[in-house]
Amino acid sequence: MNRRTVAALALTVSAGLTLTACGGPKPAPGSGSNAPADAFEAVKVGEGDTTRGGNVNVLMSTDFQTLDPGNSNYVQTANVGQLYYRTLTMAKEEAGKPPTIVPDLATDLGKVSKDGLTWTYTLKKGLKFEDGSPITAKDVKYGVERTYARDVYTQAPQELNSALSDDGYKGPYAKGSAGDFKGIETPDARTVVFKLKQPFAEFPALVSRSNTAPVPRAKDTKLDYTNHPVSTGPYKIKRYDRGRSLQLVRNPQWDAATDPNRTALPDTFTFSLSTAQSTISQQLLADSDPTALTLDSAGGLQASDAAKLDTADVARRTASGLIGCTDVLDFNTESIKDPVVRKAIAVAIDRKAIHLQYGGARFGKLTQSYINADQRGYVTQHTDLDPAGQPKVEEAKKLLKGRDYPKKLVYGYADATPRYKNMGTSLQQNLKQIGIDLELRAIPAANYYTTLAGKNMPDIARSGWCGGADSGSVRTTVDPNLGPSVDGKSFGFSNIPRYHDPEIARAMYALRGENGTSEKLGRKWATLFDRGMQDYPLVPLIRSVTRSVVGSRIRNAQVGYFFGSIDLSTVSVTSKKG
Fold this sequence. Notes:
Domain Solute-binding protein family: 100-470
Signal peptide: 1-23
Number of domains: 3
Protein name: ABC transporter substrate-binding protein
GO molecular function, one term: peptide transmembrane transporter activity
CATH topology of the largest domain: Dipeptide-binding Protein, domain 3
GO cellular component, one term: ATP-binding cassette (ABC) transporter complex
Radius of gyration: 23 Å
Structural class: alpha+beta
Strand content: 15-25%
CATH superfamily of the largest domain: Dipeptide-binding Protein, Domain 3
CATH architecture of the largest domain: Roll
Number of strands: 20
């Protein structure tokens, strides 16, 4: 799904992290972690607590890109979103493992027709919006319809839309489009029928995306909907001061009997949306607020605080786990057109130095591919990148010899995160050795992915991806990041490098319609991805590990494999420090 943001689908989590690896004893399961640098086991804090009540204080360095489920491709919105909106199915997190798709608003994972072109879902009985009005099939349909208004919702997730038969539908606001969408039928108040262009074996994962969060048409305020999305979950928005704070309180219309996936133990969640990352790090390590946690990646930890992770008190309060998120450097293939030139730049990069900017082995490991061996259908990927991350400057010079290549390029980075600027400084040095000057250009963090998706995309930019709703599937990484557009004729919405090889695009477009197991289809997606990566549209960097410190009264804290931070749907607050 998602860009990693501060989210998600990054969907792109922000954190100023420049740590060094350090050792320590292996923890007992569930005890908190001061794990050695090469240990990536999942560790939970306070597992099994059932305390009801209290407030969770979520410290964040920046505001959410959006709270509108119809305009979100970010993991942070998905994380907080599970508190106030529900979808037909849900990607249920488990630390250290890909999420499991489970029913949410729907009674089951859907019923598919024999030809694979129709999926039918039945809503549970008794579902209500926060105002007490019933949630109907038409509300689910309208939530999906809004995401087709790409002129309004520039970050709307598109994987579900690409699967549906839409006949060129442009969203509910386009002239003459009211009631015009044929991709979904609602024969009665509780039945939602999806009409597909091609069979899609993993369709239940698609309807876990935020597209299927119900939206009442009468309450739709377009871009202002982000200020108060109408709740269908256990919490609702009481107060939202953009850029400053957000408070969620209980939604009395939510019925726990319809929702086995969310514990909803705290009474409230309070979000501080402009806390400096150095302050977040200091407060959590010192336990100055025992009800606090953060959604910033790697727990918002700072370089000067690294050693404190090994103290007994902090270790007991540290949730950790290898997550499904990977960071890469994207090359703009419209400005760096020659794949040989892109390869030369790729092999010249000192990925080992970048790894140190991420904190070294304790906070992630170098990877040779955007997909990983944990995903279904993975096949070995081929690359000339040094597995230890060392640059190959002489090889890069040989590749560039006699070729016409740009002598000046621009690296864009999110301005809220020091390590991304530091990465740029390292890249400057690497590219200078092969005759390329690199300009560093700061991009406001709140607009980062919008910029990458628009006409001002720099030549080189960092991005991250957290697998997708069903991040155990190879397709959920390959198709969004290197796949073609909905019609197969250009590059796809989340394809930041703008990579489009006509032959590979045709094969991927056809593969979207094949039936088969995730394992079998995954091998085909992975093989096509390997072919595309020989053109070096991007450079794999770091498979992330998150170690997130929580306050001493926080329980049931786990690092979501997909979210890359503490899973808000599981946490609780006790009256005693522990």
